[in-house]
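Order emerges. For instance:

***
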Amino acid sequence: MKFSKLIIFIISTLASVAFIVLSASAQEASTAESASAPPKDDYSLESVTAQHPLKPPNTSSPRATLESFIDYVNRSYSVLMAAHRKNLKTPGFFTSEAVQEMAGNAEGLFDRAIWCLNLSQVPVVRMKDVSYEATLKLKEILDRIELPPFDQIPDAVAVAKELEEKKYPRFMRWTVPNTNIEIARVADGPRKGEFLFTPQTIDRLDEYYGKVKDRPYKVNVFITPEFLEFYESTPGRLLPPKWSRLLPAWSNKLYHAQTIWQWFSLIVLSFLTLLFIWWAFYLVLRSRVAVVSPAKRDWRRVIFSLVVACAIWILSYVLDKQVNLTGTVLSVVRYSLTTIWYFLLATAVFFAGVAVAETIVSSPKIDPEGVQASYLRALFGLIGFLAAAAIFITGLYRLGVTLVPLLTGLGVGGLAFALAAKPTIGNIIGSFTIFVDKPFRVGQRVNVMGQDGSVESIGLRSTKIRLLTGPLTSIPNDKMANAEVVNVGRRPYIRRLINVTITYDTPPEKINRAIEILREILSVPEAPDPKTTEGTEELAVSAGTEGAAEHEPHPNEAINQEDFPPRVYFNDLNADSLNILVIYWYHPPEYWDYLEHANWVNIQILERFNSEGIDFAFPTQTLHVAGDDKRSLTVGQRWVSEEESFSPSAVLAQAAALGAKAVQTTPTSASDAVRPESRERDDSKPKIDVELSDAPLEDDVIQGDDADGDGDTQG
C-alpha cells in the first residue's frame, strides 16, 4: 500500500513538472507569434462574418441557400487550412492565441454553412456530430457533380412571384438537377419560410457520398479537396491539436472509417474508464466498516453514481472532441455513453431522495420503524423517482426516441396498474389512517385479530408484529385500520389479582392474621425486618444496611400509588377453601420487573404463612358413609314444624328420604351434629311437635338469599 502511494506521488510530481515546462514553452511561442504581424487573408478578418458576426446566412430562396452553403464552407476551409499550416510551423505543444482565433473564425463560418441544413429530425445529442459530417459530405458531393448556373436557380423574387400568382407554387421545393438533393421551404416551426436542405436529403447523404466519392473533383471552381478526410483522420473538432503531428504515419491509415490510432485510443480510454469505475466502486461502496447506517449507505450510492457519471462524460468528451470519432462508430459510442450517463444521473437523483429521507429518519425524534418514517421514505422516494424518471425521459428525447408511443403505453399501463393496485392503495390509505389515529407505535405490544406480540414496523402496505411465540406475522394495513386493537403497551400499570386459598378448618383469628400478613407484605414498611426478607436480599436490599433505604427503593413502592393502593379482602367461601382476594397495580408496566416483584411477593407469602401455621387449601372431596358412628349422615337435614310437614314439598321430600330412615337411628339436627357436646332436654319448656324432613333441592334454598355472588373486581 505504501509503495503504491509512493508511485502515485512520483507520477503526479513528474506530470506537474512536465505541465509547467510545456505551458512555459507554449506561452513563449504564443508571445513570439503575437508580436509578429498576422498575414492577410481574403477569408479571415475582412470577411462578412467578421464584420457582421450575428447576421444569419441568406436562406430566402433555393439560390440563396445553395450560394450561402457553398460560400461559407469554402471560406471556412480556407481559414482552417491557413490556421493549420501556421499551427504546424509554430514551436511548442500548445496552440497559440492567433491560431486559436483563426480556428474560431473558421468554426463560425462552418456554423453558418450548417445553418442551411434542416436538422429538425436529428436527435439533440447527435446534433453537432451529424451537422458537421452532413455539411462536409454534402460539400464533397457538390464539389464532384455539375451544378446549374446560379441564374437558373429560383431566387427570392421568383419565389415571391410564385407565391402571389399561383395557388400551388412550384418553387416551394427545388431539386439539384440529376440528383435527389432537395432544397425545400420550411412549412412550420421556428424557421418557417426559409429554404433549407431537406431532412430526407440529410438522411441519405451517406448513400449519395458513397456513389460519388471516387469521382474526380470539378476544375476551374473553388473547391475544398479532402476536407472530409482531413476532419475524419485528425483529432480535434476542426483544427487538430499540435500533438497530432507526433503520431506515426501508419497510425493515420483508415480502417472502417476510423484511423488506427483512433481505434487504439477508443480501446485504451474505455479500459482506463472501466478500471477507474472499479476503483471507485471498491473505494466508495465496498466499505470496510462492518455496519453502515442506511443514510450513509445511500449517500455513498449517490456519490458513486455521480463519480461514474463524470467519468462517462469525460470519456464521451475525449472520444468526440479530441479523438474525433466519426460516422457509425461515433453514433454507437455516443448513444451508449449518453444512455449510461442519463441512467447514472437518474440513479443518483433517486438515491439522493432516499438518502435525504434516511437522514431525516435517523434523527432521534423519529422512530425508524414507525409509520412516520415510512411516509417520509415514501414521500422522498416518490419525489426521487419522479425526478429520475423526468431525467431519463429527457435523455430519451435527446437521443431521438419518440415519446408518443411511450406515453400512450404508460396511459394504458397506468390504467391496468390502477386496477391491479387497488388492494395496495387500500393498504396505503389504511397506513395513513394509522398514521393519523396512532392506535399503536413500533415497539408496543398489541393484541389484534388474535395475534399477540410487539409491533416491529409499520409500512405503507402492512404492519409487522413479532408474536410472543417468536414468529413474525404481517397484517395488511387496511385490516389493521378496521380491526379492534388492544394496545397492551399503553397500559399505565400491570394489574395482578391473586386468590389466596386457605383451609376450612382455619379459625377466624388466623384468617384475620392471614389478611394482616398479606397487607404487611404489600406495604412499604418504615423499618423492614431482616427476618422477613431472608432469602430475598436481591429485592429487599434495604433491610440490613444502615441508611440503605435512602438510596435503594423498596420493591413495594411500585405497587403503593396514591390512587392505586393494594387491596386485600376475605371475599369468598369456595367449595373447598376460604378465599382471600389480593389485588395490586404495578407501576410502571415493565413486565419483567413485574415478574421479579411477583416472585418476591409469592416467596414472602409462603414464608410468612408457614411461620404462622396457616395452611393453604387445595381441591379435596370428603365422603360421608351412612352408618358411620363417628359422624352420622345428617348433611342436608333440618327441623321443621308440624304445619310445614304437610306442605307438598315436605311430603315429596319425606318420600325421598324413606330409604335413609331405614338405616338411621334417632334423627339429630344438623346444627346439633356439629356441636362439641350434647345438652339435656328441658321438660319445663313447652314441647313443639316437629318432624324431620329433607331440605328442598332448589338453589335458592340451599344457597340462601344472602349467598355471596360477587366475582373478582377488575379494579
